[in-house]
Amino acid sequence: MKQARSNIHKRLALVLWGTALFAFVLVGAGLMMYQSFSLEKRALQIMEPYAQLVSVGTDAAVAFEDAQRAQEILDTLRANPQILEAGIYLEGGRLLSGFNRQTGVNPPSAPRSANGVHVGEDRVDLLQELPRGARLRISMDLDQLNEQAHQAAWIFGVGVLILLVVTFAQMAVLRRMIVRPIATLTEATERVRGEADYSHRVPASGEDEVGRLGQNFNAMLEAIHEREEDLRRLTLFQRTILDNAAYGIIAADADGKVTSFNHAAERLLGYSATEVVGRQTPALWHDKEELALYARRLSEELGLKVEAGFEVFTAKPLRNLPEENEWTFIHKDGRRIPVNLSVTALRDESGNISGFVGLVYDLTERKQAGAVIRKLNQELERRVVERTAQLEEVNRELEAFSYSVSHDLRTPLRAIDGFSHILQDEYIGKLDEEGKRLLDMVSGNANRMGQLIDDILQFSRTGRTEIRTVVIDMQRMAREVLDELQSTVTKIPNLQCEIGELPKARGDRAMMRQVFSNLISNALKFSRNREAPRIEVGGSIQGDEAVYYVRDNGAGFDMRYAAKLFGVFQRLHTAEEFEGTGIGLAIVKRIIARHGGRVWAEGKVNEGATMYFALPCIPANADRGG
Amino acid sequence: MHKAHRTGRCWLALSLLLLLLPVSGAGQEQLADPYRIEAAFLRNFAHYVIWPDSAFRNSEAPWCVAVLGRDPFGDVLETTFKGRTEQGRSFVIFRADKPEELPPCQIVFVAHRNATKRNAALAALKGKPVLTVGDAPGFLREGGVIRFQVSDRVRMSINLDQARAASLNIPTRMLEVASEVMENDTVHKVRER
Question: Does B70 touch chain A (CB under 8 A)?
C-alpha cells in the first residue's frame, strides 16, 4: 500500500524533476553556447563601425603616410573605453600610428594573423584591410562583453530558482490532485479485494478524470454490492430448495465430477456431500452391469457407441432428448435401492454444456405398493377365472339340459301333433263346432311349441357350433337374404328396399347369413302393415369397427326397453300382433358376440327401428375368399 | 589547455614587442629610401587629384608620368608603377631633359637642381593640365604644384593657386595631409610639427 503510493509519487517526481533538470541543462547549455558563439559577433558589432570609420578617415593619411593625421583619427577611438588598442600598419608592415591604452606602445609591426576577428582570453582583435595594402588593428577588452554574460548567468540562475519553486509547487498540486486520490482508491480496492467489504466509499469530488474515477468506482461498488446481495439471496433460495427437496439432486460438471449433492441425496445414498463432491459419479453408487446393459441399449437406440460410464447419462441430454430411467443405486452400506433418475443438461447463455443435474427419487415404496397391487390383481384374476369356469360349467350343463329337454320334448309333441292330425282327418265329422275349434287350438299350439323348440335348439347350437372364419361380402349377402325372404316367405307388394355399401367382414358365413336373415325378416315383419314400408341396410367403417344396420319404418319400440330387446324370449309385441318366438335377436346377439362384436338398437314407437351390429375391422390385406 | 595556449601567445607577443622596441625607435630618425615613398606619392596623386578630360588624349589613354632632369629614382618608378592602373588607365614613364621632349603628360617630376632649368621647365608646362612635382626648396614659388620635403618622413606642400591655374582639382582629403598649402600667394601652415 505504502509501496504503491510512494511508487506513483516517485515516478511523478522523477518526471517533473527530470523535466526541470532537462530544461535547466538545455537552457544553460544554450546560454553558454550563445555566449561563446555570439562573442565574436558581438565584438564585431562593436568594432566594425570604428574600423569602417577609421578606414574611410585615414584613407589619405595612409596614402601619404601621414602618421599625424592617422593618429588624430585613431585617437577618436579612445572615447570608447572598451577599445584597448588601435594601430594602422602600412603595406610593408610598418606601424603608421596607433595607441595602446595599457602599455602605451603598439606592436611595431603588422600582425601576421589573417583579417577578421580573433578572440583571445581577455581581448578581441579585429584586423581589417585598409586601402593601399595597409591594415588596421583594433583590440577590444572582453570584460565588457563578459559582463553581459554574467548578467545573463544571473538571470539564468534566478530562472532556475523560480523553476525549482514552481516544480515544488507542481509536486504539491499533483500530490493533492492525483497521487493522494489514487492512493486512496488503491487502498479502497485492496480492502474490497481483501475483505470483500463493498460498503466502503472513496471521497470523489471534482469533474476531472480522477474525480470521475472515484465516482465510477463508488458506483461500481454499489452495483457489486447489490449484485452480491441478489446473489446471496438467490443462493439462499437455491440452498433452501436443494436442502429441503424430497428428491435427491446431484449436479455434476461436464466431465462427470460431482459438484453438488443435496440432503435428500445424502439420505438416499448414505454418502455425505463432502465425501462425493469432486469425485466421478458412476464410480460410487452405480451398478456396473446395469450401466453396461443400458449402454448397449442406448448404443442400439441412438445408433452410436455409448461407453458404459458417465456417457450413459449424458448421451441423450446432449442430443436434447429426455433422459429418464429406472436404476438400481447402491447405498453406502451396500443396500440396493430402486430409483428413478432423470438427467438434464445445464447450458450456459451461449448454449454450451456446463454440467448436468440428476433428479433421483426412491422407488422402493412405490415398487412395494406395486407388488401388493399386482398380487391382489393376480388373486382377483385367478378368482374370476375360477368363477367363470364354474359359471361356464353350470351354463353348459344348463344348456345341455335345456337342449336335451327340448329335444326330448319333440317326441311327445310330435305325437300330439300326429294324433291331432289324425283327429282332424278321420274324426272331424264326429265333432261339433266347439270340438273342431278346440282341436284347431291343440294343433296350433302344438305347431307353435314345435317352432319354439326349434328356435331354442338353434339358439343352443349357435352357442356351440365352431366358427369357421372367412371374409364375407356383406352387401352381397344382405341382398341375397332380402331377395330370398321376399320371394319365399312374405311378399310385400309396395316394399321399398335400399341396400347401401357394406364393408366386408370376417366371420362364419352361415352364422352371418342367420344374422341378416333374422334382422331383415324382423324388419319385414314389423313394417309390412305400413302404407309405404321401407327397409334400409347400410354400413360403414367407424374407427376399428365395421358397423352395419338394418332400418325399417315399422312399429318401432320404446327406447326404455332397448336393453331387453336382445334377451331370450323377450318380446315387446304380442304374438297376435306379430308372430315370433322372441329368440331371433337373442341369436343375433350371440352370433355377433361370438365374432367379437356388439349389437344395439335405436327406435321410437310407430316410427321404426334400427338394429346395429358392429364387427372388428378386417385387416386390409386379409381380403380373400368371399 | 586552450587558455594556457592563449596565455603563451600573449607572452610571446609581449616579448617580441620588447625586442623590437629599440629597433623601431632607431628607424624613426632616418628614412631609408625617401624616393621609394615619393614614387608611391606620385602614384597616389593619380588617385586623388582630378584632371580635366582634356588632359588625356582619349578615355583609354594611359597615365603619362615623366621625370625632367637627372632621374633620382633609379628603377623605383618602374617597380612602383609596373602593372598598376588608376581609374582604368595604366602608367607610362618618360624621362627627358626638357619639356619639349615629352609627350603631353599628367604628372611631371622636375628633378633639375639648376633653378634656371627648373623655371624654364615649369614655364613650359605652365597653363597645361600637368601636375608638377619637385623637391627643390622654392619649387612652389617657382610655379610648381606640389613639393616634397624629406625629413624623418616625406611631407608635401601644395600650391593651390598653381593647381587651379593648371585646371587641376586637389581634393580636401589631400589637403588635410599636406604640411603647407599655398593659396593666394600665401603659405598656410596646416599643422605645426
Answer: no
